[in-house]
Amino acid sequence: MDKTINQKAWFLVLPVFLVVAFSAVLPLMTVVNYSMQDTFGNNQFFWNGVGWFKELLDPSTDLGGRFLASLGRNLFFSAVILAIEVPLGIVVALSMPREGWTVAACLVILALPLLIPWNVVGTIWQIFGRPDIGLLGYVLNHLGFNYNYVSNEVDAWVTVIVMDVWHWTSLVALLCYAGLKSIPDAYYQAAQIDGASRWAVFKAIQLPKMNRVLLIAVLLRFMDSFMIYTEPFVVTGGGPGNSTTFVSIELVKIALGQFDLGKAAALSLVYNLIILIVCWVFYTVMTNAGSERPVKEGAA
Amino acid sequence: MHSIPGRRLIMGLFLIFLLLPIYWLVNMSFKTNAEIVSTMTLWPHTPTLQHYRRIFTDESWYSGYINSLEYVVINTVISIAVALPAAYAFSRYRFLGDKHLFFWLLSNRMAPAAVYALPFFNLYSAIGLFDTPWAVALAHCIFNVPLAVWILEGFVSGVPREIDETAFLDGYSFPRFFIKILVPLIASGIGVAAFFCFMFSWVELLLARTLTSVQAKPIAAIMTRTVSAAGMDWGLLAAAGVLTIIPGALVIWFVRNYIARGFALGRV
């Protein structure tokens, strides 16, 4: 379907442009402004050039050390949750019932964690994991594990990761399920005639058909886990020590806790730049996948 | 052929894994605080409604829900209203900078809220909107407007172009075509987009908390008050948490077949 060229379409897009520009471009300009300046309070600012950026990217300074440490933790966190959520999501999608009321029931329960406010997700796991009043913490401690997410770094990490798996695996599962549903029955019948094994069906039919949704799922999960703030903040507060302080938590600490505007702004810009690059990859993948759609439908 | 061996077991275990923490929260909300801290009970032995009663009678508590709903509704209305014409434009026309604009919108959906917390605080203080639902509603537009545009674009593209052409041949003006023909055709899409705007605005805390102090404080921020000198009021915290889950759980049924599409930004 060819789109017609019509510059008047800009009038239709204008409201969106204005609203988003107001809440994105204006604030971002403030950030750029701050990132180049230093202040000693009283609203007096001094030109600092690229000083903050130099400090940020130099691990020997306090700011640089904190930034790179939190960036490392965040990338590790994203890698771990992707490694768990993607295979688990595929397995859950393959386990979905085929028809009847159970399909709707499963869909609704799967989606439930996605609709819970993020701080309540934190609260749920805070309560669930406490050794004194939480079922999980109580059971683990009575099984002989000395589990306490408040004081032990490993336990804090495990809690944050399990919480994220609980919160977001459903997203991967729902997307994969949507991909699986688009496979025509004829494919399965053909496989049956060929005597294909269960694994061959998965590898040759289901996985290729899930490709596009899986890419979307991986990129969405990466982006969102890279920006994670509320859930670990509620559960661990970034601790014990700094062990679960991710980039967003560090940024809010510097910006709203210490009110170090210059440092926070420099960090924001670098953070945003990373997101922008990943986002570009995401966009390219999505639009390319979208252009394949009609061909696929024609082939099916 | 679709399924794998032991699928019922896997599905069952996973659903239990999802429901158990939620059950624990509900369980706590019906217990007295004495029962919570003294014994480990799998269900409330002395069920009580005291926490819920407190939330519904104490204005500082229930006003939090009203404040949250207020900015969420304003945000949803703004997002859908501006996104509808834009979605039509992106779906039907090519114009200068369309692809860049579409990408720019997506990049805002992905931008970390933490980056915007401080500048938003300055911006809305400067224009006198700080601590009003409008500040939070406008701030949440940064991720909800792009989301609505992306979802609606998918639905508008599903409407055959011939319908537009026939309507214009029949003498419909553009606004009349839009309201009388296009909007009813993509009503389900508007519902889905509205649901996702509602949801993402409802679950967000960082910006909502930063942009309010007293008057427009959202329920999520009020929940942090349960920490007091006498220790945590776990029962109250749990009850407040349960009440925040209910709006999502109620409407989820209506969009269950579109959930994947919404989370994938309309691209499934």
Q: Which secondary structure elements does this structure contain, and how are they paired or packed?
A:
The complex is a heterodimer of chains A (300) and B (268).
Chain A: E1 4-5, H1 9-35, E2 37-39, E3 45-47, H2 51-56, H3 62-94, H4 101-111, H5 118-129, H6 135-142, H7 153-181, H8 185-193, H9 198-226, H10 230-235, H11 247-257, H12 261-299
Antiparallel strand pairs in A: 2-3
Helix pairs in contact in A: 1-12, 3-7, 3-9, 7-9, 9-12, 11-12
Chain B: H1 7-29, H2 33-38, H3 50-57, H4 59-92, E1 93-94, H5 98-110, H6 113-126, H7 133-157, H8 161-169, H9 174-185, H10 187-203, H11 206-210, H12 219-222, E2 227-228, E3 231-232, H13 234-251, H14 259-263
Antiparallel strand pairs in B: 2-3
Beta percentage of chain B is under 5%
- Largest interface: pair, residues per side: A-B, 106 and 99 residues
Secondary structure tally, helices of chain A: 12
Give the CATH architecture of the largest domain in chain B: Orthogonal Bundle
Give the structural class of chain B: mainly alpha
Shape of chain A: globular
| Amino-to-carboxy terminus distance of chain A | 19 Å
CATH fourth-tier homologous superfamily of the largest domain in chain B: MetI-like
- Quaternary status: heterodimer
What do the pLDDT scores of chain B average to? 87
Largest sheet properties of chain A = 2 strands, antiparallel
Note the run of SSEs of chain B as H and E. Answer: HHHHEHHHHHHHHEEHH
Radius of gyration of chain A: 24 Å
Shape of chain B: globular
How many separate domains of chain B? 2
Question: Under the CATH scheme, which class of the domain at 73-245 in chain A?
Answer: Mainly Alpha
Task: Return the CATH architecture of the domain at 73-245 in chain A.
Answer: Orthogonal Bundle
Secondary-structure class of chain A: mainly alpha
CATH class label of the largest domain in chain B: Mainly Alpha
Poorly predicted regions of chain B are none
